[in-house]
Automatic annotation (TrEMBL):
It comes from Roseibacillus persicicus. The keyword Lipid biosynthesis does not apply. This is Peptidase M20 dimerisation domain-containing protein. The lineage of its organism: Bacteria, Pseudomonadati, Verrucomicrobiota, Verrucomicrobiia, Verrucomicrobiales. GO terms for molecular function: metal ion binding; peptidase activity. Keywords: Hydrolase, Metal-binding, Protease. The gene is dapE. GO terms for biological process: proteolysis. Residues 181-341 form the Peptidase M20 dimerisation domain. PANTHER family: BETA-ALA-HIS DIPEPTIDASE, SUCCINYL-DIAMINOPIMELATE DESUCCINYLASE. The keyword Protease applies.
Length: 443
């Protein structure tokens, strides 16, 4: 086994499950491994305490006039349940069929270890790095990074940088280098529609008082028109139209065609806002989705009841320039305006986060594109992600710096699921990528 794989295996053996307090000492032991590793590479390193799991911060000696690059990763992992579905023990990494199988192999130990080892190789070969480096590894990403924003705020000056590199996203397909430059935001709410003060007999009272479940269904149905467009007034007011180059680029990106989506989702058909491709709907258009709905009798057989209330949960995915607070207020206003007679409504806003977008054609973006092309042998596809990565938005808000999302995960890597895996090929490509990227960013 190569020394690079040995290092990766060493960290994969720590069950650094951040959500489980029984594993707090494993999380800490894993952090300590990185402290020792960074020290052995000649970097200055600090184990930074937080209210929960520590952050590892490593740096080289800064030289004025050089670019400062922050590489972010997280060394905590998801729980392993259901354990019986794993083909090998989650914390005893093995290589089979060209893949490393272990919890954390892709998310995120394998991906950030590639950067760490790229840094180590560069130092060994050249004696120093072409940039001022800040390597930040947190142990709380899988529980929502509760202490990272405070840490960034506290160390704002010390962490000032020209660009951030993160490998915690995916490649659209095997062998297709992928540069991510945008993420959707989110805003959520829960709605309770109230009717009678108790469940009623549907024979004795049905037809004479409003049914909250029917009213909730009417409200939900009012959120979209028949063509999939969100019908909330003002919902699209701030949405920037897609650039021509984006539509052109995305029309050629593999993995997001109609047939790909049908296969991945198992849905009988694709559906979404008229006038947009699936990639555009996923990456650059806002949505309003029902996440759950309940009320009334849910048990076996029938029960002739008129429920006293019905509830539903909504989440809106947002795109740049949509403010979460503004959008959720418009949704509330829409629901109040469409509330059927005979019921009342309780509206509770949930968590939210802004969308993120950077210019993939900036100086750093171009350096990343060149590095990806050099390592993978073809120009990268430039995509946005449909999901949200709050830390990237936090780093933008607090440090004012854009992030290059250099995804190395493959679609079948099974992160968060049993049999998580990372190809040896991508691990090794990631090491080369980190070396070339630092060289290009430093040039
Ligand atoms: Zn994860």
């Amino acid at each position: 086994m190569t020394p690079a794989l040995e290092d990766l295996f060493a960290v994969l053996r720590f069950p650094s499950i951040s959500t489980d307090s029984n594993h707090a000492s494993d999380v800490r032991a894993c952090a300590q491994w990185y402290v020792d590793k960074f020290k052995s590479m000649g970097l200055s390193v600090e184990l930074c305490e937080t209210a929960k799991h520590p952050i590892v911060l490593a740096k080289n000696e800064p030289v004025s006039g050089r670019k400062t690059v922050l590489i972010y990763g997280h060394y905590d992992v998801q729980p392993v349940d259901p354990i019986e579905l794993w083909d090998s023990a989650p914390f005893e990494p093995v290589i089979k069929d060209g893949k490393i199988w272990a919890r954390g192999a892709t998310d995120n130990k394998g991906q950030h270890m590639a950067h760490l080892l790229g840094v180590e190789e560069t130092i060994k070969e050249k004696g120093e790095l072409p940039v001022n480096l800040i390597f930040l590894l947190e142990g709380e990403e899988e529980i929502g990074s509760p202490n990272l924003p405070g840490f960034l705020e506290e160390r704002k000056e010390e962490l000032a940088c020209d660009v951030i590199a993160v490998s915690d996203t995916g490649m659209v397909a095997k062998g297709i280098p992928t540069l991510g430059y945008g993420l959707r935001g989110i805003t959520c709410c829960e709605v309770k529609v109230n009717g009678p003060d108790k469940d009623l007999h549907s024979g004795l009272y049905g037809g004479a008082v409003a049914n909250p479940a029917t009213a909730a269904a009417q409200l939900i149905a009012s959120l979209h028109d028949s063509e999939g467009k969100v019908a909330v007034e003002g919902f699209y007011d701030e949405v920037e139209p897609l650039a021509d180059w984006e539509r052109e680029m995305w029309s050629q990106v593999p993995g997001v065609s109609e047939s790909d989506l049908l296969e991945v989702t198992g849905s009988p058909a694709v559906f979404g806002e008229a006038g947009f491709s699936s990639a555009e709907r996923l990456w650059a258009r806002p949505t309003c989705e029902v996440n759950g709905m309940w009320g009334g009798y849910q048990g076996e057989g029938s029960k002739t009841v008129l429920p006293s209330y019905a509830c539903f949960k909504l989440s809106c995915r947002l795109v740049p320039d949509q403010e979460p607070e503004v959008i959720i207020a418009r949704v509330q206003k829409h629901l109040e305006a469409h509330l059927p007679t005979g019921v009342t409504m309780e509206f509770t806003p949930g968590h939210s986060g802004k969308a993120y977008v950077a210019d993939p054609h900036s100086e750093a973006g171009k350096a990343a594109q060149e590095a990806l092309e050099e390592v993978f042998g073809r120009p990268p596809v430039l995509i946005r992600e449909g999901g949200s990565i709050p830390i990237i938005q936090s780093m933008k808000e607090i440090l004012g710096t854009d992030t290059l999302m250099l995804g190395l995960a493959l679609p079948d890597c099974q992160i968060h699921s049993p049999n998580e895996n990372f190809t040896v090929e991508n691990f090794e490509a990631g090491i080369r990528l980190s070396k070339v990227l630092l060289e290009k960013l430093g040039a």
